[in-house]
Amino acid sequence: MNKVATAVQLRFDVRRSNSLREEVRQRLIRIAGKRVNKEGVLLIDARRFRTQERNRQDAVERLIQWIRRAAERPKKRIKTKPTAGSRERRLEGKRQRSETKRLRRELI
Questions:
Q1: Is the alpha carbon torsion for 86, 89, 91, 97 positive or negative?
Q2: pLDDT for res 86
């Protein structure tokens, strides 16, 4: 058992950070989810490694990854319509299912 306290907590105040653009701030808060508290502070808990220094590096690396992910603009979704073939396959499946159920019905 590891009896030395080597865990590290990194706190980053997302809401008050002047180094991030507003859109990046909002995305970071949304992406981080429950890791961000009500005050807008991102909490990263690092305890993977045996040394405190390595855990410190790990926490900083994870913060950088979160910020990089938030800095990427999400691609706009281009609306598409179903192809004629996919529509026909869907309707054919519905016809087959309908026929199966029709044959199960009790004849009077």
A1: negative
A2: 96
- The count of other CB atoms within 10 Å of the CB of residue 83 is 9
Mutual orientation of helices 52-71 and 22-32 as an angle, nearest 10°? 120
Strands (E), 1-108: 8-13, 41-46
Report pTM: 0.63
Do the Cβ atoms of 12 and 41 come closer than 8 Å?
Answer: yes
Asked if pLDDT for residue 62 goes beyond 60, the answer is yes
Per the DSSP assignment, residues forming a β-bridge with 10 are 44
Q: Which domains does the chain have, with CATH numbers?
A: 8-71 (3.30.160.20)
| Torsion sign across C-alpha atoms 99, 91, 89, 78 | negative
